[in-house]
């Protein structure tokens, strides 16, 4: 007898946002895009790709922009990672929402989206479970942190629905923040204008709160490499993940 409560298992593609200019890191990595910053000798983006592969995702679209050719030359079509890599290159900065709109024809439904400059602890299965069982439009990975001041924060209802996004600098102290990993319905992109700079976080997600937007809180390791101090801290913080990613690439299995 079929289990009607079972979670469907669609072939989910991942889109990694790695087209940012990385201006705050420019003094340290002027020769490469931010997502290619070396962590214990391994490009940060390689760590993210190894994680995607470990979750069973075999098709990835990289949203590139600044110094895109370096990313494309290094990873190629993903043969050494046993995944299929496609590219969507911006000719001008389009923001997180604009980058997704540009790649719309290549995307799956649902789609997993990752920021290319942050590492969080996530697993695909619980995100899919919420997505299908709750009938969610978006599932946002949230991170518990001791001080939300740098990031802005997110407020959840008792049932896990996101009810408020709060800009950075308004609140401080412990709370949960947007960790930069999303599972979303492709139809959300349909109404976005093409060729325009749009932020998912500021322009899209807040106006969808009347729909089913859920959060999943992670308490595991998290780091955003977008500022010099955290890029330096990542050298030890992500050393084990960098070693794993290096082995994945060298073996190609």
What is the structure about, briefly put?
The chain is an alpha/beta fold and 253 residues long.
Description:
The chain is an alpha/beta fold. The protein has a single domain, classed as Spore Coat Polysaccharide Biosynthesis Protein SpsA, Chain A (Alpha-Beta Complex). Helices cover 26% and strands 25% of the residues. The strands form four sheets. Strands 5-4-1-6-11-8-12 form a seven-stranded mixed β-sheet, with helices on both faces. It has a two-stranded antiparallel sheet with strand order 2-3. A hairpin with a 2-residue loop joins strand 2 (38-39) and strand 3 (42-43). The protein is globular. Mean pLDDT is 92; it is low at 1-6.
Main beta sheet strand tally, sense and closure: 7 strands, mixed
- The first-level CATH class is given as Alpha Beta
Portion of residues within helices? 25-40%
Write the CATH fold name.
Spore Coat Polysaccharide Biosynthesis Protein SpsA, Chain A
Distance between the termini: 36 Å
Strand order of the largest sheet: 5-4-1-6-11-8-12
- What's the structural domain tally? 1
Number of strands: 13
How do the helices and strands line up, and which of them pair or pack?
Layout (H helix, E strand, L loop, with lengths): L12 E6 L19 E2 L2 E2 H11 L4 E6 L3 H8 L8 E6 L5 H8 L8 E5 L2 E2 L4 H10 L4 E8 L7 E4 L5 E5 L8 E10 L15 H5 L8 E6 L4 E2 L3 H10 L1 H13 L2
Parallel strand pairs: 1-4, 1-6, 4-5, 8-12
Antiparallel strand pairs: 2-3, 6-11, 7-13, 8-11, 9-10
Helix pairs in contact: 1-7
């Amino acid at each position: 007898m079929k289990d009607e409560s079972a979670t469907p298992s669609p072939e989910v593609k991942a889109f990694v946002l790695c087209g940012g200019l990385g201006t705050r890191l420019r003094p340290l990595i002027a020769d490469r895009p931010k997502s290619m910053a070396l962590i214990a000798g391994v490009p940060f983006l390689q760590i993210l790709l190894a994680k995607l592969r470990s979750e069973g995702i075999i098709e990835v679209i990289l949203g590139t922009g600044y110094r895109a050719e370096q990313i494309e030359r290094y990873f190629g079509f993903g043969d050494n990672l046993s995944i299929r890599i496609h590219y969507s290159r911006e000719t001008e900065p389009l923001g997180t929402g604009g980058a997704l709109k540009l790649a719309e024809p290549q995307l799956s439904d649902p789609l997993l989206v990752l920021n290319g400059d942050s590492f969080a602890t996530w697993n695909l299965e619980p995100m899919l479970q919420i997505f299908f069982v709750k009938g969610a439009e978006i599932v946002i990975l949230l991170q518990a942190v001791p001080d939300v001041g740098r990031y802005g924060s997110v407020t959840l209802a008792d049932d896990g629905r996101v009810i408020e996004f709060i800009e950075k600098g308004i609140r401080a102290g412990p709370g949960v923040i947007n960790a930069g990993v999303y599972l979303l319905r492709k139809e959300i992109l349909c109404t976005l204008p093409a060729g325009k700079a749009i932020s998912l976080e500021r322009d899209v997600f807040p106006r969808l709160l009347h729909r089913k937007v859920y959060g999943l809180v992670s308490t595991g390791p998290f780091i955003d490499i977008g500022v010099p101090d955290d890029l330096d801290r990542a050298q030890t913080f992500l050393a084990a993940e960098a070693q794993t990613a290096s082995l994945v690439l060298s073996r190609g299995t």
